[in-house]
Amino acid sequence: MIEYKIEEQIGVIEENGSWRTELNRISWNGKPAKLDLRSWTKDRSRIGKGLTMTDDAAKKLRDLLNTL
User: Fold this and answer.
1) Cα–Cα dist 68/65, whole Å
2) Is this model's pTM higher than 0.90 or not?
3) What is the pLDDT of residue 64?
4) Any idea what the Cα angle at residue 60 is, between residues 55 and 63, rounded to 5°?
């Protein structure tokens, strides 16, 4: 079983019915927390697919998005 702990709730990106996409800092299986962009049901009973990245990777993604 996968264990996780949401250490910091950063924000909601979008909502669609009972699901929402959130950016959080999450520790997965006791490892150091990373940025996590993922869909969740509003009551967090189900988890969708997502991306987990280090702060350095997030900065590179930010830089790429800023070029759009």
Assistant:
1) 6
2) no
3) 98
4) 125
Q: In this structure, what are the phi and psi dihedrals at residue 61, rounded to the nearest 5 degrees? A: -65, -45
- The pLDDT > 90 percentage for the chain reads 97
Non-local CB neighbours of 65 within 8 Å, separated by 6+ positions: none
Q: Where are the beta strands (DSSP E) in the chain?
A: 4-16, 19-28, 34-41, 47-53
pLDDT digits (tens, 9 = 90+) for 27-37: 999 999 999 99
CA distance 32 to 43: 24
Amino acid making up residue 20: R
* Interatomic CA distance for residues 63 and 66, integer angstroms: 5
State the CATH class of domain 4-66: mainly beta
Longest distance between any two alpha carbons in the chain, whole Å? 39
